[in-house]
């Protein structure tokens, strides 16, 4: 019997790893908390992900999915607009096709199409993970059943249960919250707002807050109200938790500490989104408000045979455009190591193969490299967040930085 491999989590990291293992005919099982998405679920706006050369796009290429990926990237352009609190655009840039946008739902559906249905077990809530008797294998407890695996990959996000096997480190609150709202059929219903937010990404900055918009499926604008509020229980304290989105308007738009000092056009965007929010990720119709958490940059742990982490489970950080890319790169690098160890031990007896496979699988080197990347990305994220939220009028500082970056890129291109 070949080594038993479990992947906990069917997000981009877990699914990418699954596709890559499937291509090598390496058996595995993915366990996912959510139920299997329906076609209607997949069609809903779900946020856009820009994939980058050297990470996310490399993983797509390694999966053999580039041709299938490209047609799914037309719902959000690479246009990027920065506006001040009044809604006045200070900076506009159009991408060059180097970082195409794909909806999270479409990316998940694309990857799942290349994994047999029998390899994904839906509706499985992991209660705990523990080492087996004598340290052999890892036991995954799903409440109703337990299974033992030789290699367990924790791709189970911010509050990973698998991570507890490796470290006591837990995510800490960042002092920021995010409210997610969605307007569908924006161009037809609200052409003025569609013109303001453009065809790609838009952000209005001020008072250490940000209103971010991304275009997406169903001609949508998905808004992220990124609020700097020190109260970790802000949703409950402000009376927003458990309320419909429309009930949030007064709190958000009339409080000077929140969004009341933003201009009329930006406030109209937020107000409309509160009224129109009918395509959120929640099925109960309540406001989607969440606190932001992060792990220490370069979070490390003593490497253990047979257990490792990917993506947010390993290096959770504030949204910076890199999270999904680093997660997919984690999966790509781990898949190569698994393939190498799997092939190196293919001729061994069933009894000896598992131990040899785990010995040949160099998780320690992979984890060190992953931590080093996380330190680099974490520092860059800190710089980005400092520019966007460092002052009451951060739009101007952020614009200056983006103009300087654009000038450097143009100069470098001209010199080639």
The CATH architecture designation of the largest domain is 3-Layer(bba) Sandwich
The Cα radius of gyration reads 22 Å
Number of domains: 2
CATH topology of the largest domain: FAD/NAD(P)-binding domain
Q: Give the CA-CA distance, first to last residue.
A: 54 Å
Domain FAD-binding: 5-220, 306-349
Protein name: FAD-binding domain-containing protein
Pfam families: FAD_binding_3
Keywords: FAD, Flavoprotein, Monooxygenase, Oxidoreductase
Written description of the protein model:
The chain has 416 residues and is α/β, with parallel strands linked by helices. It folds into 2 domains: 232 residues, FAD/NAD(P)-binding domain (3-Layer(bba) Sandwich); 123 residues, no CATH class. Helices cover 38% and strands 20% of the residues. It has a 7-stranded mixed β-sheet, sandwiched between helices. It has a 5-stranded parallel β-sheet with strand order 7-2-1-11-17, covered by helices on one side. Strands 8-9-10 form a 3-stranded antiparallel β-sheet, with no helix packed on it. Helix 1 packs parallel to helix 5 and helix 3 runs parallel beside helix 12. This is FAD-binding domain-containing protein. It comes from Sporothrix bragantina. Keywords: FAD, Flavoprotein, Monooxygenase, Oxidoreductase.
């Amino acid at each position: 019997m070949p080594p038993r491999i479990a992947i906990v989590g069917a997000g981009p990291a877990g699914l990418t790893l699954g596709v890559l293992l499937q291509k090598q005919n390496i058996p595995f099982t993915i366990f996912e908390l959510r139920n299997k998405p329906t076609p209607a679920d997949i069609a809903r706006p779900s946020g856009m992900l820009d994939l980058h050369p050297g990470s996310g796009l490399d993983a797509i290429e390694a999966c053999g999915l580039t041709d299938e990926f490209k047609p799914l990237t037309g719902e959000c352009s690479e246009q990027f607009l920065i506006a001040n609190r009044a809604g006045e655009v200070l900076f506009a840039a159009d991408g060059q096709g180097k970082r195409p946008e794909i909806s999270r739902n479409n990316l998940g559906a694309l990857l799942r199409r290349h994994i047999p249905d029998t390899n994904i077990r839906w509706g499985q809530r992991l209660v705990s993970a523990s080492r087996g008797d004598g340290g052999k294998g890892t036991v995954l407890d799903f409440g109703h059943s337990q299974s033992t695996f030789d290699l367990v990959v924790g791709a189970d996000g911010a509050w990973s249960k698998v991570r507890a096997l490796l470290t006591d480190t837990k995510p800490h609150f960042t002092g920021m919250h995010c409210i997610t709202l969605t307007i569908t059929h924006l161009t037809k219903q609200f052409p003025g707002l569609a013109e303001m937010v453009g065809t790609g990404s838009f952000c209005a900055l001020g008072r250490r807050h940000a209103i971010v918009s991304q275009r997406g499926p169903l001609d949508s604008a998905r808004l992220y109200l990124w609020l700097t509020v020190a109260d970790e229980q802000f949703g409950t304290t402000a009376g927003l938790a458990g309320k419909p989105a429309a009930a949030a308007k007064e709190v958000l738009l009339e409080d000077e500490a929140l969004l009341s000092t933003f201009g009329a056009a930006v406030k109209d965007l937020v107000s409309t989104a509160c009224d129109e929010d009918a395509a959120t990720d929640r099925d109960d119709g309540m406001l989607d408000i969440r606190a932001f958490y992060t792990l220490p940059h370069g979070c490390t742990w003593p490497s253990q045979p047979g257990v490792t982490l990917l993506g947010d489970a390993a290096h959770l950080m504030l949204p910076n455009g890199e999270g999904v890319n680093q997660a997919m790169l984690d999966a790509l690098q781990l898949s190569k190591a698994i393939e190498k160890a799997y092939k190196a031990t293919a001729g061994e007896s069933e009894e000896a193969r598992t131990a040899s496979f785990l010995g040949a699988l160099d998780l320690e080197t992979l984890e060190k490299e992953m931590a080093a990347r996380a330190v680099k990305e974490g520092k860059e994220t800190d710089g980005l967040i400092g520019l966007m939220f460092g002052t009451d009028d951060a739009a101007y500082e952020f614009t200056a930085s983006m103009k300087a970056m654009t000038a450097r890129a143009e100069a470098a291109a001209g010199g080639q």
